[in-house]
Specification:
Shape: globular
Number of domains: 1
Order of helices and strands: HHHHHHEEEE
Number of helices: 6
CATH class: Alpha Beta
Strand content: 25-35%
CATH architecture: Roll
Radius of gyration: 15 Å
Largest sheet: 4 strands, antiparallel
Strand order of the largest sheet: 1-2-3-4
Low-confidence stretches: 1-8
CATH topology: Nuclear Transport Factor 2, Chain: A
Distance between the termini: 45 Å
């Protein structure tokens, strides 16, 4: 019973999950992105990206921008969850993000969906 229930839950479209469930998936992924960005660990940074996002990226250019960005290398662990937008088979989780070296706040965006029955990142950015 428990195994079939878990498999059924995995097949649920992520947009059908409650906000709290989505946030419980998103927050650790966001924290990992912050940690790996600050440490310049590009390989670890992209480890939870979906196959389609990974294929669409120019990894050389992204790695260069990643390494040379003051913002990307100094993200504060202090962030605020703002909410969720649902669309199609993906959710966009929004965060208020701060930087340790620049004053102000940025909007963090994390797009999540399922790939091979695992929650994966289909987009991530800071504006």
């Amino acid at each position: 019973m428990l195994v079939s229930q878990s498999l059924r839950e995995l097949r649920v479209n992520i947009v059908e999950r409650a906000d709290e469930e989505i946030q419980a998936i998103a927050d650790p992924l966001w924290r990992d992105l912050l940690k790996n960005s600050n440490e310049g660990q590009y390989g670890e940074f992209v480890k939870n990206f979906s196959g389609s996002l990974s294929l669409a990226m120019n990894h050389v250019e992204a790695g260069r921008q990643f390494a040379n960005s003051d913002l990307a290398r100094n993200l504060s662990e202090d962030f605020d969850y703002l909410g969720i937008i649902r669309r199609g088979e993906h959710v966009t989780v929004l965060y208020r993000q701060r930087c340790t070296k620049k004053a102000g706040e940025w909007l963090g965006r994390l797009v999540l969906g399922y790939e091979d029955e695992k929650a994966k990142i289909f987009g991530a950015s800071i504006f």
